[in-house]
Write a structure and sequence with these properties.
Length: 485
């Protein structure tokens, strides 16, 4: 064991003395710091120019545009007499013109609950009928309705509106979403969640929508229609998770951010989204390991040190294993650096405010909080299998050829062309692609339930990878032990 340890130490010393290794490591560190720093710059730039563009678009676009549009149509419809008095006009156009003018003058927000529930439109229509004498026998009803809506416009007027809506629904409403709406209004009143309450209100709406969708699905099933049990289960889990978050005041759900594994899927820049996106750099670790594994044996031949290596008392297979262990140790070190340095950079750039947020999941109808740090660490461990497989492939190629540059280029070519070939086969519907190594390397996605091919499972992927590892390992061992000096 001591001799083997000395062999590994010797290989590590040779590896660290290579300028190429140091350059790759330095560039890798720069990539981690640069990536997180770039997102910090983008976040600050967005914060400085952060304007309520939806409101601006609503007021300056939709509202102002409709004021001009209906104003022009209304004024064009007016017929004047010789004295300049109005003989007739299109009252429908006038009503629309006055409605949009009201929204413009009062700077109504696009997300104002009175606007989204159509109360401003109802209010303006009733007032228009009263002021222009078109209400007729309904004048009393219109007058009472405008007074009622004006009471809704007062502070906490939403409470009166919600109570009135509950009374209306209970009196004779028979829609499939009846229970969902009653639950929504009752929960809002009990917990004091006003329509302007931001994240909590948005969460409450999402639960209501899930309850409504579930009720519609159950109604379809009761009518004899075929429904997706998987979709029904997802809706139930969404409701369970949403209610749990409401009860515990957890407005942020970081599950999507933690599971994110692509730089191009970052929707909101924060600690967890960037820390998770740094998992993309695992590919760089794989490339570095391929380069090192592809040269660690071939360089002995290209530099003429192979014969001196074989003169040592150590057996060939021990020398081979020592070189492979060196590659693995380098890969483990780079993975640890990636995890710890990206974590430190995210702490530095984005603070610790989100650090205590739990990762929530629903298991058997029960919400289970877990550590997002451990979840991401698990993805790193599963992704390390890809690095192991590609390093062993490059190691086998390195043992087969004598040229250092040829071994590296051939290894990288196999890596990238294999991934491309698998994608082409999958797009063409060739089922044989499931048996290729590259179709089974994304273990984090397969563990989460994603299937590139129908029926593809995590266990199947592990079995395919093991078969390839055995072939690559045997090839490297056979080529190295049989080679003549």
């Amino acid at each position: 064991m001591h001799k083997f340890t000395c062999l590994v130490k010797n290989e590590i010393i040779k590896l660290t003395k290579r300028k190429g290794t140091l350059v790759m490591a330095a560039l890798f560190l720069a990539a981690i710091v640069g990536l997180t720093g770039l997102f910090k710059i983008v976040a600050e730039s967005s914060a400085q120019s952060d304007t309520d563009w939806r409101q601006e678009s609503f007021q300056q676009g939709e509202v102002a545009g409709n004021v001009d549009y209906y104003g022009t149509l209304y004024h064009d419809s007016i017929v004047y007499d010789e004295n300049g008095s109005i003989l007739s006009s299109d009252l429908e156009l006038k009503e629309l013109y006055e409605y949009w003018t009201y929204l413009a003058e009062h700077e109504v927000r696009y997300d104002d609950w009175l606007y989204t529930n159509g109360l401003y439109a109802e209010y303006c229509a009733a007032k228009f009928a009263l002021e222009n004498g078109t209400a007729g026998a309904l004048a009393g009803e219109y007058s009472a309705r405008t007074a009622k809506i004006e009471s809704y416009m007062e502070k906490d007027g939403w409470r009166a509106y919600y109570q009135d809506r509950m009374a209306e629904i209970q009196s004779g409403y028979t829609g499939t979403d009846k229970e969902a709406q009653l639950w929504f209004y009752r929960y809002s009143l009990d917990r004091g969640i006003a329509p302007e309450s931001g994240e909590m209100y948005t969460l409450l709406l999402s639960v209501k929508n899930a309850k409504t969708a579930l009720a519609e699905l159950d109604a379809s099933a009761a009518a004899g229609e075929e429904i997706s049990e998987e979709h029904r289960s997802e809706l139930q889990d969404d409701i369970t998770l949403g209610v749990w978050r409401l009860e515990n005041g957890v407005t942020r759900d970081i599950s999507a951010e933690v599971k994110n594994s692509s730089l191009f899927e970052v929707e909101e820049i924060n600690f967890w989204s960037i820390f998770a996106a740094c998992k993309t750099l695992i590919k760089l670790v794989g490339v570095m390991c391929i380069v090192i594994a592809g040269s660690i044996v071939a360089s002995e031949f290209s530099q003429g040190t192979y014969k001196f290596l074989l003169m040592s008392p150590a057996k060939r297979w021990k020398i081979l294993v020592a070189k492979f262990v060196t590659v693995l140790l380098f890969g483990i070190a780079m993975m640890a650096v990636l995890y710890l340095l990206s974590f430190a950079c995210c702490l530095l750039f984005f603070g610790t405010a989100d650090l205590a947020l739990p990762l929530l999941s629903v298991q058997n109808g029960v919400v289970v909080p877990s550590s997002p740090l451990l979840s991401i660490l698990g993805d790193y461990l599963l992704s390390s299998v890809e690095i192991l497989a590609m390093a062993l492939l490059a190691f086998a190629i390195s043992a087969l050829v004598k040229g250092n540059a040829l071994a590296i280029s051939a290894s990288l070519l196999v890596y990238f062309s294999g991934t491309l070939l698998e994608s082409i086969l999958r797009s063409l519907g060739v089922d044989f692609g499931r048996y290729l190594l590259f179709a089974n390397l994304d273990l984090p996605a397969l563990y989460a339930g994603t299937e590139l091919y129908a029926g593809q499972s995590f266990g199947f992927a592990v079995a395919v990878i093991l078969c390839h590892l055995i072939v690559f390992g045997w090839t490297a061992w056979d080529a190295f032990t049989r080679r003549e000096m």
